[in-house]
């Protein structure tokens, strides 16, 4: 059974490709830039890299011919949301495809304050309308989201934001990929939505206290206005749409939408998720 991975060179997609190959599962990476994929993966047995314009339904259908499973790791707003609908719709018409699994987000709903959550809900609703066999992996905010603050932390030992309270059980992207591989390869986990969290909810100031301990010097949280945060993100090269999504995430955290844990990761993998301290230790040099 070959799994097509769309978003194969992203943070989670890369780990999913590697995880599937380690289990002896053949993978077709559908990518815009084969050179980038070859740089990331080399040429291991079991991996086929296919240059594919996934926004082109006819070209995508050709690339998915004979594929058994599809994994999609893309954003839920703007152009990427459109592409996700194309992928779902094309997959629904290919008889060989037994399951489409998407990387989604915790608290996917029409009522979330988070733009990302509402966007993923919209894609889920579309998938339901096509009748495709379908599952999602819904992680909490990634521990790796702290890397976005690394330049500011290196420069000033502060991180600016809106959510000076409210907690989220940050999860390591490597754990998310491990769970996704299990969902892809275990039929008993198909046709379901799998919420994933890290081991404990933390506020941003509490997470920065853990980073302070790792670095051996204090890193503080700087509370700013929404306008100031928007201007800071845009000045750092973040698109307006992405900045709006990140700000909405702060409001969702403040509202307490993320202040809980689930044991789904333990049930799926048989072990506990990584604590944030493990992530910060592994990525220490990015903040130093």
TrEMBL record:
Domain of life (superkingdom): Bacteria
Limits of the NmrA-like domain: 3-238
PANTHER family referenced in this protein's UniProt entry, alphabetically: PRESTALK A DIFFERENTIATION PROTEIN A, PTHR43162
Protein name: NAD(P)H-binding protein
Species: Streptomyces liangshanensis
